[in-house]
Specification:
The protein is 22% helix and 29% strand. By secondary structure, the chain is an alpha/beta fold. The protein has a single domain, classed as UDP N-Acetylglucosamine Acyltransferase, domain 1. α2 runs antiparallel to α3.
Length: 184
């Protein structure tokens, strides 16, 4: 039988109140407190905490505090990742991010979702769908990326966009729901 963590990462229904998942979230909160309350001049301490928080971090990752996530361990970023103030990444599913990705302030990336069936939803079980973000992507302030989305290389997500579908490479998307407004 699989653990709740294995079910979660496989995109199956899982119980978020599982003791192992609860321990992982508490560990994440301790690291977030270290990041979010660090002396702004102590960049080395913040970088070290970011490295311990994320499942994989390339060279020079940076998050401006405050930053929020569920687990951290399910977030994998490439080189030169930057998240501006007040970003949220709900990561019960994996979030894979390429190199040279910029997140504007208050960007929200959600792998977490719930069953559509009311009885299933009332059972308290949850779902997660992975998100993939290519390299050299810029996600504008206040944009929301929904579960299961893939964003192609060199794409630009306009401020405030709600990305509910995959975004091809080298396009600008904007709006709610996000639509292609320009090809690059």
């Amino acid at each position: 039988m699989s653990s709740e963590k294995e079910r979660m990462l496989a995109g199956e229904l899982y119980v978020s109140g599982d003791p192992e998942l609860d321990r992982m979230r508490r560990h994440c909160r301790r690291l977030l407190r270290e990041i979010n309350h660090a002396d702004p001049d102590d960049r080395d301490t913040v970088r070290a905490a970011i490295g311990r928080l994320l499942g994989r971090a390339g060279e020079s990752p940076w998050v401006e505090p405050p930053f929020f996530c569920d687990y951290g361990a399910n977030i994998r970023v490439g080189n030169n990742f930057y998240a501006n103030f007040n970003c949220v990444i709900l990561d019960p599913g994996t979030v894979d991010v390429g190199d040279d990705v910029l997140l504007g302030p208050a960007v929200q990336i959600y792998t977490a979702t719930h069953p559509l069936d009311a009885a299933e939803r009332a059972s308290g079980r949850e779902l997660a769908r992975p998100i993939r973000i290519g390299s050299r992507v810029w996600i504008g302030g206040g944009a929301i990326v929904l579960p299961g989305v893939t964003i192609g290389d060199d794409a630009v997500i306009g401020a405030g966009a709600v990305v509910a579908r995959d975004v091809p490479p080298r396009v600008v998307v904007a709006g709610n729901p996000a639509r292609i407004v320009r090809r690059l």
